[in-house]
């Protein structure tokens, strides 16, 4: 066969070793794929919130798998049981694996106890996307919000996660903020665990 | 070496997504469902214990006659009912099954929380059980 080289062919995917895999994927390949994903969903829905929901669901599937894979690969099979632990896990490890760098900042919301925010100057997924005026508040970062939601929910911290633009003076493009609002039971459990 | 064991993977909502009888014990007529019953009863204990520790393996959490229940917690619960004594064997078994589970989870067409029906998965779990238990 052409190009067989030294790669062993496995009969079944369950036999392949998990390993580290390829660390990098081409950015343009991802940008094309993501733009096609957004365009396809645009033809399937009637309004913006449904579009955001679909992107979120796509991200949720990714998040669930990323959590398991990272727990196994990087953390030597230790789980996170505390709120701050899982948040810093998302903020550093997950971001590093997905986007190549840690997120810009992680803040606790001042108005409500259960709100946290991860900020990023420019989300990687948004880099090649421009939002037309008539789509208003639509944010492709809904995909990333879905990833975060997938990670949190599958770790046992159900939350509502959304992505917003936050205008910053002195900068042309607004900053992106991912807002995480945890469910009641998470706060109660945190209080119980001390 | 143990002769009988029952292995169940239960999802986050306590719905079993995979069950296997491993080992060579003959099924008792009157208590055919007993292993499943014991494991279901142990789920309550797992829920409390899961949040007290950040390690994944929870060792032995319950006893029933001469059988013990060991649990390995990720987002789903891997539960094993057995009468073996070797802790290390159990730990390695859990870790290998966890890897298998991650590989089948990575399949984008697999909905997390649905039953695992692959016969290859079955074979591999059986082989691992014979090796470690």
From TrEMBL, chain A:
UniProt KW keywords: Endoplasmic reticulum, ER-Golgi transport, Golgi apparatus, Transport
Highest taxon of source: Eukaryota
Subcellular location: Endoplasmic reticulum; Golgi apparatus, cis-Golgi network
Family: Belongs to the TRAPP small subunits family. BET3 subfamily.
GO BP, sorted A to Z: endoplasmic reticulum to Golgi vesicle-mediated transport
Name of the protein described by the UniProt record: Trafficking protein particle complex subunit
Pfam families: TRAPP
Organism: Gossypium hirsutum
GO cellular component, one term: TRAPPI protein complex
Record's subunit section: Part of the multisubunit TRAPP (transport protein particle) complex.
Automatic annotation (TrEMBL), chain B:
Any Gene Ontology CC annotation: cytoplasm
A biological process from GO: endoplasmic reticulum to Golgi vesicle-mediated transport
Organism domain of life: Eukaryota
Gene3D superfamilies: 3.30.450.70
Any Pfam family hit: Sedlin_N
CDD domains, alphabetized: TRAPPC2_sedlin (cd14825)
Record's protein name: Trafficking protein particle complex subunit
InterPro entries: Longin-like_dom_sf, Sedlin
Species annotation: Gossypium tomentosum
């Amino acid at each position: 066969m052409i190009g067989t080289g030294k790669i062993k062919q496995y009969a079944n995917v369950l036999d392949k070793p998990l390993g580290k895999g390829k660390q990098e994927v081409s950015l343009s390949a991802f940008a094309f794929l993501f733009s096609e994903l957004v365009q396809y969903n645009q033809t399937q829905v009637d309004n913006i919130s449904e579009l955001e929901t679909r992107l979120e669901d796509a991200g949720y599937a990714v998040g669930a798998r990323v959590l398991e894979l990272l727990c196994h690969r990087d953390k030597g099979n230790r789980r996170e049981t505390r709120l701050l632990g899982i948040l810093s896990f998302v903020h550093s490890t997950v971001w590093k694996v997905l986007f190549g760098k840690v997120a810009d900042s992680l803040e606790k919301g001042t108005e409500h106890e259960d709100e946290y925010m991860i900020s990023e100057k420019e989300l990687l997924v948004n880099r090649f996307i421009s939002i037309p005026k008539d789509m208003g508040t639509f944010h492709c970062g809904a995909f990333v919000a879905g990833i975060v939601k997938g990670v949190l929910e599958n770790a046992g911290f159900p939350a509502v996660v959304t992505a917003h633009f936050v205008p910053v003076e002195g900068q042309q493009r607004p900053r992106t903020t991912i807002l995480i609002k945890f469910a009641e039971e998470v706060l109660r459990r945190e209080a119980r665990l001390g | 070496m143990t002769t009988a064991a029952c292995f169940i993977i239960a999802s986050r909502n306590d719905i079993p997504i995979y069950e296997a009888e491993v080992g060579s014990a003959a099924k008792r007529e009157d208590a055919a469902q007993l292993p499943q019953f014991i494991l279901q009863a142990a789920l309550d204990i797992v829920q409390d214990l899961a949040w007290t520790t950040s390690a994944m393996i929870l060792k032995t959490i319950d006893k029933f006659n001469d059988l013990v229940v060991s649990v390995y917690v990720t987002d789903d619960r891997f539960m094993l009912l057995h009468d073996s004594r070797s802790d290390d064997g159990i730990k390695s078994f859990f870790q290998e099954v966890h890897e298998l589970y991650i590989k089948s989870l990575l399949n984008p067409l697999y909905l997390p929380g649905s039953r695992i029906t692959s016969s290859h998965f079955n074979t591999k779990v059986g082989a691992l059980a014979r090796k470690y238990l």
